[in-house]
Amino acid sequence: QKEVEQDPGPLSVPEGAIVSLNCTYSNSAFQYFMWYRQYSRKGPELLMYTYSSGNKEDGRFTAQVDKSSKYISLFIRDSQPSDSATYLCAMSASNNQGGKLIFGQGTELSVKP
Amino acid sequence: NAGVMQNPRHLVRRRGQEARLRCSPMKGHSHVYWYRQLPEEGLKFMVYLQKENIIDESGMPKERFSAEFPKEGPSILRIQQVVRGDSAAYFCASSPSFGERSGYTFGSGTRLTVV
Fold first, then answer.
1. CA distances from A42 to A66, A81, B9, B22, B53 (A)
2. Are B91 and A44 within 8 A, CB to CB?
3. CA nearest to A31 within chain B
4. B74: alpha, beta or left? (left if phi > 0; alpha if psi -120 to 50)
5. How many other C-beta atoms lie within 10 A of the C-beta of residue B34?
């Protein structure tokens, strides 16, 4: 079983839709949770960072962490064609050495005009 | 302020050759991470380095792979005697402090193709 599971998609939505992306994990030591966006042939770009449980909002993006269920989500409101990319969740434990991140497989999102 | 710079962007090697991938961290960053992304897979951690020091190499294959981050110059990921299975995108990231967990900045990657 992978430490982090993420549905690879692809996910196709119309412009303006609300997008929900999710990851589940098995390691209860994970305390740091991130979402990265990766455009084709580019490096990952940090979108959201959350420590422990709770919600965080930044513009059209909302990240949620439910540690009791070992489940994290990223919501994108009013989705735009420019949001078309692969979204990667990433996590880190407080007991590891340094800042090693464990990534999900990534979900490919396509927003159609 | 330039971001994390990786070169070359694309690298083609024949089986058995050596591949050298370079990474220059962001200005002021002294911590470097290397990740590998295989087709249809997420990023996999390889190694975490501080200048002149390997902090965590738990993700490095035991053979043929090595990494360094000298006092001067870029970090180098070296793959000896490459095989087809080494074909992947290799990403470098940097951070300003030890054990940065709030996310760090990635470069655009080096895409290695072994023929």
1. 30, 17, 10, 16, 28
2. yes
3. B101
4. beta
5. 25
pLDDT single digits (tens) A67-100: 999 999 999 999 999 999 999 999 988 665 667 8
Q: What share of chain B is helix, strand, coil (3-state, %, to 5)?
A: 5, 50, 50
Cα three-residue angle A88-B27-B109, rounded to 5 degrees: 35
Helix (H) or strand (E) holding B20: strand B19-24
Distances A92 to A52, A66, B52 between C-alpha atoms, Å: 10, 15, 24
Whether chain A has a CB inside 8 Å of the CB on B65: the answer is no
Q: pLDDT tens-digit profile of A6-38?
A: 988 899 999 999 999 999 999 998 988 999 999
The pair of structure tokens assigned to A53 is 């449980």
Closest Cα in chain B to A106: B42
